[in-house]
Amino acid sequence: MSAVPGAGRVANRPARRTSRRLGVWLQVLILAVICLVWIYPLLWIASASFKSPLEVFSGGLGLLPQEWHPENYLRAWRDGGFSGYMLNSILVTVGTVVVTVVRCALAGYALARRDFVGRRVVIGILVATLFAPAGLTIIPVVELSDLLGLLDTRTGMVLALSGGGHVAAVLLYAGFFRRIPRELEEAAVIDGAGFLRTFVQVMLPVARPVTATVAVMTLLSSWNNFFVPLVFTFSRPDLRTLSVGMLAFRGVNSTDWSGLAAAATLSLIPILLVFFALQRYFVEGVAGAVKS
To answer: Residue 246 pLDDT more than 90?
Structure first.
């Protein structure tokens, strides 16, 4: 008696499904291990912020403290002066984000929508600044800030942090503006809008995803910057930001590691909250610019 056609294929389907599921679960397991390795240092810092200084060293890589010490956060916030450092970081970061977004949006709009002599040269110079180390420009920046009376001020820090090339932000805006239909600009011109009015009322609202992306990138860079705030607050410790203020937990002969871990956790919380709030726009902005 002859076999039923296709019976072998039907019999193999459960085996193929089982093999496919095993492959999926294996991928999930590998990715879970990679994610755990990636975020483990952050989890350890958060757990160390609740440990005593002795347990930080004796506890090894364990995450759960033997005794909880929430007073580490009080010591970092009050005794370590992190209430003032947090305010300085917020003011400097917000100012840097605003100045950088406006400046990079205008530069990207001009590069994307205006054909002028030397446009390619300008783009080439911007790209070349990517290879210039940050320490190369700090001396002229400090000298210029001192001449303008902006040294040891929050305004000086904002201008120093936002005055760089920010090439990635400019190119993100340029790529996004380049693929917007010109009919929008033409309609604004017919209504009597000039260059700046068209930019503010028409183009910038459309570029919200890129603005969120640039804002997050600038926020991360400014919030975590150590070199510029350190140089600008040598004679004004009260103007230190969070990244520089962590030096307060390091003494000549010892370091308050549990207080330092609490301070590091405090500095991470605002960044994580902002990123989770803007992550959708961040991904859309990067994807849109790369696609263009």
So the answer is: no
Cα–Cα distance between 76 and 272 in angstroms, integer?
A: 19
This model's pTM is above 0.90? no
d(CA 163, CA 159): 6
Cβ neighbours, 10 Å, residue 56: 20
What is the rounded average pLDDT of the residues 252-261?
79
Please, are residues 291 and 111 in contact by the beta-carbon 8 Å criterion?
no
Q: How far is CA 75 from CA 66, 71, 88, 242, in A?
A: 20, 6, 18, 15
Alpha-carbon gap, residue 199 to 196, rounded angstroms: 5
**Average pLDDT for 97-121:** 85
CA–CA distance, 249 with 240 (Å, rounded to integer): 14
Q: How far apart are CA 267 and CA 273, in angstroms?
A: 11
Tell me the C-alpha distance between 120 and 41, whole Å. 44
Q: What pLDDT band is residue 1 in, cutting at 50, 70 and 90?
A: very low
Cα 52 from Cα 258, distance rounded (Å):
6
Q: What is the number of residues in the chain?
A: 292
Long-range own/partner contacts, residues 249-255 (CB < 8 A, 24 or more apart): 249/76, 249/80
Better pLDDT: 212 or 18 = 212
Stretch 209-221: mean pLDDT, rounded? 88
Q: Are 112 and 192 in contact (CB under 8 A)?
A: no
**Helical packing angle, 208-224 and 82-113, nearest 10°:** 140
